[in-house]
Amino acid sequence: MSRDARASQDPDLLWTPGPRELEDSNVALFMAWLEEDRGLRFADYAELWRWSSTDLPAFWSAVWEYYGLDAVTTYDEVLADATMPGARWFPGARLNFAERCLAQATGERPALVSVDEGGEPVEMSWARLRDQVADVAAALRRMGVGPGDCVAGYLTNLPQAVVALLATAAVGAVWTVCAPDFGTPSVLARLAQAKPTVLVAADGYRHGGKEYDKRDTVGELVDGLPTVRHLLTVDHLRAADPGAWPVRADVEVHSWSGLPPADGPLTFADVPFDHPLWILWSSGTTGVPKGIVQGHGGIVVELLKALGLGVDLRPDDRYLFVTSTSWMVWNFLVGGLLHGATLILHDGSPAWPDAAGAWRVAERTGATVVGVGAAYLTAVEKSGLRPAADLGLGAVRSVLQTGSSLAPSTWRWVHEHLVPGAQLQSICGGTDICSVLAGASPLLPVRVGRIPGPALGVALAAWDEAGSPLTGEQGELVVTAPLPSMPLRFVADPDGTRYRDSYFATYPGVWRHGDWATVDEDLSVVVSGRSDATLNRMGVRMGSADLYAVVEQLPGIADSLVVGVEEDDGGYFMPLFVVADDGGHEGDAEHHDDALRERIAGAIRRQLSPRHVPDTIVRVPALPRTLTGKRLEVPVKRILQGAHPADVCGPGAVSHADMLPWFADFAARRHAGVVR
Fold it and tell me: Pairing state of beta strands 654-655 and 625-626?
């Protein structure tokens, strides 16, 4: 039966595996190898997943051997301790992430293809990539950087960001990065914790047809980072001019373009499996952003598995992910080097010169695998554009979608008007593991609104409040067994209290991810949104604490509350409620104080980013809090999603409990079109 015939019988069926996927995909070849090499036969993906998530030593040793790591290093055992947190993976093994990425070099294809707004694609060969990594690694060593040090980036999605990451890993130091569209306070809230000795920063960037000079901002960052001793400048917008960087006198400025060639061949620090590789950052919802430390070995084996056996990435792929360097999918993109794939780096707005800007990049670069946030897909759909008819996207065989849920219409639009015939891979994962918990597989069909299944090696389930597994019912998304890329630790969390509280406080010894999920009998997964208070806009997590820090320092603002609401139609609504003591009037959209709204929005845009600006700013007479003074973000979010106030919060447990019905009324009026 043809794919079209099957789809006509099941209107929600969008894609089914063909002969190539069933016989020649990476996961199909892996299953054949398991049968031939280990005598293990699995009838289908479900059987393979159950084995992979229950016999962890057998599965992860198979991944290790299948991807040739047994030729690189030995290990004492696969999983010395399965306790979460604190699982010990592959003790005795020694792996360097940068060495494994560059080990896939070939002269047949470029390593990187970079595209900025209005420019032509620029290719970088694998040999040139290795040379640049060698040059920067040598420079870092001359600066005294080695294991235990941190190198921070303030960069957009440039080739220099990839090179700097690999060079940092090569010398055994720890990498971290913030995108320049973050405001100075947001960047310092993160990088100050990491205590970098070197800052790699570009002079500016282009976005939406405009140029942004960031040299003065870099000076502010250096002033706020007393540990920085060296500034490595990337001259992206203009010619090199070390004197144009206003930095402290004790900071030595180096120009990227002026670095001398390395004296010898590139060498890699010989580091253990759990040696720190990079720091990713949480959104900062509950206060200071959490610095999530992940290790060389865990990232190598996890991204070999996730990108290879899940995404089906291959050496001849051209892999584009529309992202900023602050989103974990940038690291997920760089992981494509582990498979020898060519990375496509797009530096600019995906919606420039029009809503299909990123798809024009895909066309020009011959991208075969394209990753995007859900909100961007929705925006292109709503623009009325039809990329399938207007652009040459025939090379695209797979579209990765993450960040939030898609409306049913968008699932269908992708298959009908974006890239007909391509596989839409909706994936759920996160910064916390820098990988995928649930996603697609070449062996599984794609249906509207459903993630096809848990990722291999992930013991995923939905649990009720008592810790009992649920099937076909919504519960907390949990992971009941460890993963190699789970955090080694958090920055500035010496006894691990913050780490344990973040994931293991609800179910001791079991990872609670913070999403509402439904796992059905066929293992397909529906993720219904965040179960915590994290804001998630355009696929990027953002911290409410960052926003509060800006809003509440403004004169006349007494209190504030921001929530992010996932809506039934796939939309995302982010209102900000403020209590003002400036003598103005309260009310709904008909009584907005325009001056107050513009003052707040302008401050957020300047100090954080345009992405942080709420959809609406509403003056309220008071905001409820717990009796210990905590904001009621999750209860208010649930009320705005339709829950009854009495079902989410007992009035005796909060101050200003009379405001809870107000939020229910606000939600009703908004859905009725009375307020926007």
Answer: antiparallel
Residue 569 CB-density burial (10 A; 0-12 exposed, 13-18 middle, 19+ buried): exposed
Look up residue 42 and give its two tokens: 């699995």
Residue, of 71 and 550, whose pLDDT is higher: 71
| DSSP letters for 226-276 | TT--EEEEE-SSS---GGGS---TTSEEEEGGGPPPPSS-------BTT-E
- For residue 497, CA distances in Å to 86, 290, 534 come to 12, 12, 20
- Whether the predicted pLDDT of 541 surpasses 70: no
Smallest Cα–Cα separation from 426: which of 455, 386, 391, 465? Answer: 455
C-alpha 208/C-alpha 382 separation (Å) is 19
In this prediction, residues 196-221 reach a mean pLDDT of 95
46-51's contacts with Cβ under 8 Å and 24+ in sequence apart are 46/453, 46/522, 46/523, 48/456, 49/453, 49/454, 49/456, 49/523
Confidence bin at 284 (pLDDT 50/70/90): low
Confidence check: pLDDT of 238 > 90:
no
pLDDT tens-digit readout, 385-439? 999 999 999 999 999 998 767 778 889 999 999 999 999 999 999 899 999 999 9
What order of strands is seen across the sheet that includes strand 428-430? Answer: 428-430, 435-439, 453-454
Question: What's the average model confidence in pLDDT over 616-620?
Answer: 94
